[in-house]
Amino acid sequence: MPTLPLVSFIIPAFNEASIIENNLEEIQRHVAGLSRDYRTEIIIVNDGSSDATLALAQAFADRHPDVFVLNHPINRGLAAALQTGVFHANGDVIVTLDVDLSYDPSHIDRLLAELRRTGAAMVLTSPYMKGGKVKNVPWDRHMLSAGANRFLSAAAGGTVSTLTGMVRAYDTRALRSLSVDAKGMDINHALVFAALKQDLAVVEIPACLEWRRPSGDQPTRRSSMKIFAHMWAVMQDAFRHRPTMLLALPGLIPGVWPLMAAITYFLGASHQTIVAVTLATAIVQTVSFAYFCLLTGRYVFGWRILPHAARIFNEKRTTSRA
């Protein structure tokens, strides 16, 4: 009888004492139902929690032989927590889950089925693709999330709709082949960009993102994500993956400016005004291109060639005068 594939479930946790017991039980019940098709292990990574998360996770693991707890003595961020889990995972397939169950465990079956059907490197849950849904998420967080994913999707060439979600299934070998530089939540979209750069298959399934309403004495759900730092990371990674996006908005100005210049000239605008605006446009373009170079490391040789050319020019002038 062939050996069933092993699936490693990685669950990072940081200060989740109020929900971790019940949610781990719910995950475990669902995972146990996969036993006909898969062998499973659950890896909980406590990322330096200051509450009882570690103790509760360890107590849960003591009751279930297929559950293991890894611990970071200090908080190192989501990227490090996932990397620790991936390093210790034994599975042919890795599934990453949010301990808050903002994606219901029923998504697991569809993730695994799609990974098996397509042979993709990763399968993403996507509330922003056709058929996806978002429920009970505060409108401001919803708008930020939708905007960030639209921006990242454009950087990815429109091939995927949701890049920031963590609930995914990965082919383990493909995942371990990816090299990313991420520290926090940016690990999620960084992995997608890294896979696309290697021409690995990335597919999505429609999903429902739902913030669960607290029950009993549980505190109201609050996200620990540092919004501005995360948005800055989103923009930087999008520009790194598709640098031309950095030039898109300033690039519209030179395209439209000749028409504007002609209109303003015939309306009586002075030559000085037209020259000034043209110069300002050129400066914006140059600064944008310089930032593009700094982000990508491309065309750096250009900044080295220019001083070298200037030295040669000066030497020739000195020689001719002599």
Outline the secondary-structure elements.
Blueprint: E1 6-13, H1 20-32, E2 39-47, H2 53-63, E3 67-72, H3 78-88, E4 93-96, H4 107-118, E5 122-126, E6 133-135, H5 139-155, E7 168-171, H6 172-176, H7 187-197, E8 202-206, E9 208-210, H8 227-241, H9 244-266, H10 271-296, H11 300-321
Parallel strand pairs: 1-2, 1-4, 2-3, 5-8, 6-9
Antiparallel strand pairs: 4-7, 5-7
Helix pairs in contact: 1-2, 5-8, 9-10
Structural class: alpha/beta
Q: What is CATH's topology name of the largest domain?
A: Spore Coat Polysaccharide Biosynthesis Protein SpsA, Chain A
Q: Which CATH C-level class of the largest domain is it?
A: Alpha Beta
Number of domains: 2
CATH superfamily of the largest domain: Spore Coat Polysaccharide Biosynthesis Protein SpsA, Chain A
Strand line-up in the sheet with most strands:
3-2-1-4-7-5-8
CATH architecture of the largest domain: Alpha-Beta Complex
In terms of DSSP E residues, the strand content is 5-15%
Average of per-residue pLDDT values: 82
Largest sheet: 7 strands, mixed
**What is the helix tally?**
11
Radius of gyration from the alpha-carbon trace, in angstroms:
26 Å
User: How much helix is in the residues?
Assistant: 40-55%
Q: Low-confidence segments, ≥5 residues, pLDDT <50?
A: 298-306
Spell out the helices and strands N to C.
EHEHEHEHEEHEHHEEHHHH
Instruction: Give the number of DSSP strands.
Output: 9
CA-based shape: elongated
